[in-house]
Design brief:
11-stranded mixed β-sheet, 19 helices, 11 strands, 519 residues, single chain, 2 domains, 41% helix, Amidase signature (AS) enzymes, alpha/beta
Length: 519
């Protein structure tokens, strides 16, 4: 798209119109979008076209000064603040809220000249692994409309997989970029904690949340990361670490990209092949590791012994932080508000939160409040933080021992049918077993498509030391190069043909049928 725009072969308005037409044609059956800003997108595209005309008139230097995302349409997970657009975080308690300001990453995207098409569906307050916990209904997976796209960033993943937009923004608290990327067959990157500012992002768990890109290939993900990363004085956790300009110079040649694997040392952690992992997923990931080794990488077995505690640790730390962060939704200052007949504040508070929050959010608030309560803080929250340190130490030892990156599954299974795990929250939580430890350690990781199992996408996860996003993206680009002729790379999401049929049921209707409930 960037090349076509610079050459004048296509306009930004035309790209925006194509994106809007694709959304109109298939999103009824996918429900990836919660708000589409057609007027704003077309206005931004027209401004991008004017800048392109001026840049072409200035010659090579003028065009070189434009960011690769200039004029390119994209979507944002609906917890990113965009001035004047709805920002619900997938929750009824924020229905009607329109931020009076832009998030830091929104500002950066506008500066880059990107065209923001709208806001994408998600699990409520990013609490979930399937996007079934959205207060506005579930999203369907473009590969199979009866299955989930993963979560909590299911909307952005589905929109990119469906071709609505080439790139999108998600957030990753326990795997919420990488897991839906794996289930939808696209690329998803969780940067190092602090690489991207969280200013203007609706908070879930502040020591774990991180913003990152979705894309259909590694170079596009790198361009989007380059656009949004960097220090922001409004976010005290935003790190003053330079953004590598080489993010925009990943090799285009497959031969050059593949050559970067020679001499790279990759660790294969045995603990990530968890009990209950689907055989097709394990086979695809081990085959990917073998392909990396055949291309010149040194793949060795490693152990991360505290991995087994990652799930329990996360589900103490994250709900505790959510309990504190979500206390602000009281029905007084903004968002949803309900009033009882007696004029009593406590009654109004209970009504607002009782009706505004969904079941999963209530569950996690209660878990977190219990873990922080007097008499339990030391036994649960404090101990979880100590175990978190041990989890990080496992990674530190591996990288200090000469491992450049770790190779692991992203998800223990492929996309599951609607409702399959809704009655068992622990089974839902376990779907993030391979991604949670990375968040606990604050490290970067990327999920790449590595094949199909039962006709559904499988994700390969690469994990690196802090601030190694460029190295991970180079490895990801190398893996793309050595598998460029793989048959599975030619597969496209088969659900899109049905999604274009206006009689196809919505995800909410499909989920109801699968649950045995009359729509």
């Amino acid at each position: 798209m960037a090349a076509l725009l610079r050459a004048g072969s296509v306009s930004s308005r035309e790209l925006a119109e194509v994106a809007l037409a694709a959304i109109s044609a298939t999103d009824r059956a996918l429900h990836a979008w919660l708000a589409v800003d057609a007027d704003g997108a077309l206005a931004a595209a027209d401004a991008a076209d004017r800048a392109l005309v001026a840049a072409r008139a200035a010659g090579h230097e003028g065009l070189a000064g434009l960011h690769p995302l200039h004029g390119v349409p994209l979507g944002l997970k609906d917890l990113v603040s965009v001035r004047g657009l709805p920002c619900t975080a997938g929750s009824r308690i924020l229905e009607g809220y329109r931020p009076p300001f832009d998030a830091h990453i929104t500002e950066r995207l506008r500066t880059a000249g990107a065209v923001i098409v709208g806001k994408l569906n998600m699990d409520e307050f990013a609490m979930g692994s399937s996007t079934e916990h959205s207060g506005f209904g579930p999203t369907a997976n473009p590969w199979d409309l009866d299955r989930v796209p993963g979560g909590s960033s299911g909307g952005p993943a589905a929109a990119v997989a469906a071709g609505h937009v080439p790139v999108a923004i998600g957030t990753d608290t326990g795997g919420s970029i990488r897991q839906p990327a794996a289930l939808c067959g696209i690329v998803g990157l969780r940067p190092t904690y602090g690489r991207v500012s969280r200013y203007g992002i609706v908070a879930f768990a502040s020591s774990l949340d991180q913003v990152g890109p979705f894309a259909r290939d590694v170079r596009d993900a790198a361009a989007l990361l380059h656009a949004v990363a960097g220090r922001d004085e409004r976010d005290a956790t935003s790190a003053p670490v330079p953004v590598p300009p080489e993010l925009l110079d990943l090799p285009g040649s497959d031969e050059v990209a593949a050559a970067t694997l020679r001499g790279v040392r990759l660790g294969l952690p045995r603990e990530y092949f968890v009990t209950g992992m689907e055989p097709g997923v394990e086979a695809a990931v081990r085959a990917a590791a073998a392909e990396l080794a055949a291309a010149g990488a040194d793949v060795v077995d490693v152990s991360l012994p505290h991995t087994e505690y990652g799930l329990a640790t996360y589900y103490i730390v994250a709900p505790a932080e959510a309990s504190a962060n979500l206390a602000r939704y009281d029905g007084v200052r903004y968002g949803h508000s309900e009033r009882g007949s007696g004029g009593d504040y406590i009654t109004d508070y209970k009504l607002t939160r009782g009706h505004g929050f969904g079941a999963e959010v209530k569950r996690r608030i209660m878990l977190g409040t219990y873990a922080l309560s007097a008499g339990y803080y030391d036994a649960y929250y404090l101990k979880a933080q100590k175990v978190r340190t041990l989890i990080k130490a496992d990674f530190d030892r591996a990288f200090a021992g000469g491992i450049d990156a770790l190779v692991a599954p992203t998800s223990p299974g492929v996309a599951w049918p609607f409702g399959a795990k809704m009655a068992d929250p622990v089974a839902m939580y376990a779907s993030d077993a391979c991604t949670l430890p990375v968040n606990m350690a604050g490290l970067p990781a990327i999920s790449l498509p590595c094949g199909l199992a039962e006709g559904l996408p499988v994700g390969l996860q690469l994990i690196g030391p802090a601030w190694s996003e460029l190295g991970l993206l180079r490895l990801g680009r190398a893996y793309e190069a050595i598998t460029s002729s793989a048959a599975w790379r030619t597969a496209t999401p088969p659900g899109l043909a049905s999604a274009a049929d206006p009689t196809t049921p919505t995800p909410a209707e499909r989920a109801a049928v699968l649950a045995g409930v009359r729509p």
